[in-house]
Specification:
Order of helices and strands: HHHHHHH
Radius of gyration: 20 Å
Oligomer: single chain
Largest sheet: none
Number of helices: 7
Number of strands: 0
Structural class: mainly alpha
Shape: elongated
Length: about 190
């Protein structure tokens, strides 16, 4: 069957929309496009929220978003592209989670939506209006889906876990310094 159906059109629209937004978001980090801060500014931000080293973290996040998004939009290497983008969005969601769900309050709504869309595309596949289909699905085999998602899940858990440990140590250090200041202040009276 060579005719395209509404599922193929729907997947194309979802890929173009989510992939395009992800790619643009990643280029903000990598190149400072679309009002972004580039690697230097994003690296400083990443460092401030516990992702270290900051510039390397910004590069990894930018590549996952820009590369994963572009590949999703093209429908190429869909399992790996979706997993990479989802991993980047999971890292972003971890930063925004303390602010609650809704984006208006700085929450993780936006990151979660993009991450789930990328994951859904990795699982569902790109449809027939894609480069994966045109290339005979050489980069879109069934075994690639769980492999890509599992590998990304492990790496993301390690990176976010290390961030949480850093933030916890930082907070404990700040509390200890505050306690020392109070002790010195009250000890002088």
């Amino acid at each position: 069957m060579t005719a395209f159906d509404r599922r193929d059109l729907g997947l194309l629209l979802l890929r173009l929309g989510a992939g395009g937004v992800l790619a643009a978001h990643g280029t903000q980090k990598l190149f400072g496009w679309f009002g972004g801060h580039g690697l230097e500014g994003t690296g400083q931000f990443m460092e401030s929220v516990g992702y270290q080293p900051g510039k390397a973290s910004a590069t990894a996040a930018g590549l996952a978003e820009a590369g994963g998004g572009a590949l999703l939009a093209l429908g190429l290497a869909t399992p790996a592209a979706g997993a990479a983008a989802a991993g980047g969005m999971a890292g972003a969601a971890a930063v925004h989670a303390p602010n609650g769900f809704f984006n208006a309050e700085g929450g993780y709504e936006y990151a979660a939506t993009l991450g789930l869309a990328a994951t859904g595309l990795a699982i569902a596949g790109p449809g027939r209006l894609s480069l994966d289909h045109a290339l005979g699905h050489v980069f879109d085999r069934g075994w690639m889906v769980p492999t890509a998602l599992a590998a990304t899940g492990v790496v993301t858990a390690l990176v976010v876990g290390a961030r949480i440990k850093r933030l916890t140590r930082r907070e404990q250090g700040e509390q200890a310094a505050l306690f020392d200041e109070q002790e010195a202040l009250f000890g002088e009276q």
